[in-house]
Amino acid sequence: MKSSFLLIGCILLSLVTAVIRLNMVWEWEWQLLLINVDLLPINQAAVKAALLPEMTTSFLAGGLLAIASSGLQHIVRNNLASDSTLAVSSGAQLALMIAVIFFPAAELFSSFWIALLGSLAAIVLVLFIAKASKLNPLTLILGGLIVNILFGAIASLLTLFYFDFLFGVMVWGSGSLLQDGWATSITLAITVVVAFFIFVLLSRPLTILSLDDEQARRLGAPVNLLRYLVIFVCAAITALVVSKIGVIWLYWICSASLAHFAKIRHLLLRLLIAFLAGGFLLFFTNNLIGIVSRIYDTLLPVGAFTATLGAPLLIFLVLRQRKAQFEASNTAYFPVKRLNSWKLPILLLCAGVILFCLLQIIAPTMNGWAISIDENLMSSYRLPRSLSAIATGAMLAVSGSLLQILTRNPMASPEVLGVSSGATIAAVLSFLLFPTLSSISFLLFGVLGSLTVLALIMWLSRKLQPSALMITGVAIGALVSGLMAIIQLSGSPRLTAVISWLSGSTYYANPNTVWILLSVAILLISATLLFIKPLRLISLGETVSYHLGLEVKKVQMIVLLLIALMSAASTLAVGPMSFIGLMTPHLAKNLGAITPEKQIPISALLGAMLMLIADWLGRYLIFPYEIGAGIIASILGGIYFLLLLKQHK
């Protein structure tokens, strides 16, 4: 019933905003909108030629993306699947970026085929990862999340080196519904008819597919063929829309989930409701953006705006299905053996020291690679950056371990759950709005952002299963991405520093501040060691730890504050990092560090070493140019986790 009210409310809001927008730009009587453009003054002819196609395109594009998401949800039996969460849109966008840079002539043929190739590559990769787990919902969502981050890291790398080429792609990629005729609307309308025709033909076997695979096969349904056919259709729909209007985030999972929560069992009716919900959602959003743009004389990207508005709606829908059963394990993904001695941590520490020393003296010179011992370079350039990488890597690794212990979720980390995103957006906004603030003030803003997200995550963790909690992290990440897209298109002269910082670069590390960062890291990591015993009890469960006399709430609040401080300090020092906080606890568990007293120090050592290597590779891989350590860590971590999930059954 609530879903019906939401849909009706969305339709009414869409119509109201459309009337307001038309009144703001149309000076004649409304019936004149239907007359020939040649009979109108130039300014009103331009309004008619652009505005009506734009409104029509927004409705059709939103509906098509909702159909694609609803189809994906049906075949993978996961109500939180969509083109966004399964990386279909990311694949299309990355393929178009690569084509613009390296194969510009390909654009002469059709951007649709390029986007389709990227979409199919992304969804095939996600399905390949989840195949071993028989398309387990948690593995699918995690696979999509990791492919999204991996493709995002590659896109960031391309943007860093080809910013001038890609600025137009960035504007378009943030979602642009501006039209100069009816060509796009006609193409999308034909696609709507074809999509519904295909689903009408497949409706009976797809209804059988709503049963489990074994029962569907017994009833004669070609399960795999159907699944791959629907995936191709949904990828083609997404690719077409992305090639026409850019990437629009999050709304389609909301509209498709809205149709599911309305408890409509008939597939075609569910697709129709999803189409209407998605169409009116984008129609309303586009009208709202048009009104705001008209009032403030600015241009806002539609895709970024939908991500910003869609994140709260997605969290609401996730809460609606909190009683749904998800298969999730709280154990490590790798088979592990318990570590019974401290030999391994000592060996890791020795290896880390040797690695640190070697990376300070091995560098490219005028004559190629050599042992370069230059005190000036080492003290003012290499040493500060290496120490900064070590400090941030250790803090992120410990934050990830603490979060996994607290939430008893093996895929929790500051990056995945949006904690780092909270610190990022708080720091960026404070930097752009108050550029004269001190470093301590930026740190406080970052801590506030981290704590806000952490409070939300801990509240939701009591209500949601791990896979649904991952979707919350996706929503928070999308919210931050939307805000960052708006900020990047604002034209602020300080954006160059922001983009460099967002790549996870240690470029701004200097001898004056690195020792402060190192001291903060040592202090905060040492503070976590004081809570080893309480963390051991919490890992047994809240009920058990409470009956053993532990003040669970108090310990959780203190540990959460430590996580927020470490995440904020790391983010402010070198920008947001992906996978370090997620990857290192699993590596530690794989080495046998199961208990908190072993897992935390080993994770810290591994995180420091991984960041040290990522920073060194980023500096010298394509010397004299530089790649941010965060991008290197994201790419390496993404590949690692794709292999990890592939093994998970």
UniProtKB/TrEMBL annotation:
Where is this gene product found? Cell membrane
Q: Which residues form a coiled coil?
A: none
One GO-annotated biological process of the protein: siderophore-iron import into cell
Q: Which UniProt keywords apply?
A: Cell membrane, Membrane, Transmembrane, Transmembrane helix, Transport
Its main subcellular localisation, reduced to a broad class, is membrane
Going by the entry's taxonomy, the superkingdom of the source organism is recorded as Bacteria
GO MF terms on file?
A: transmembrane transporter activity
Name the protein family: Belongs to the binding-protein-dependent transport system permease family. FecCD subfamily.
Q: Give the signal sequence positions.
A: none
Spell out where the chain crosses the membrane.
Answer: 45-68, 80-106, 112-130, 137-162, 182-202, 223-242, 248-264, 271-292, 298-319, 344-363, 383-403, 415-434, 440-460, 467-487, 513-532, 558-580, 625-645
Q: How does it sit in the membrane?
A: Multi-pass membrane protein
What is this protein's record name?
Ferrichrome transport permease protein
Provide GO CC annotations from the record: plasma membrane
Q: InterPro entries per the record?
A: ABC_BtuC-like, ABC_transptr_permease_BtuC
The reply to whether Transport figures as a keyword in the UniProt entry is yes
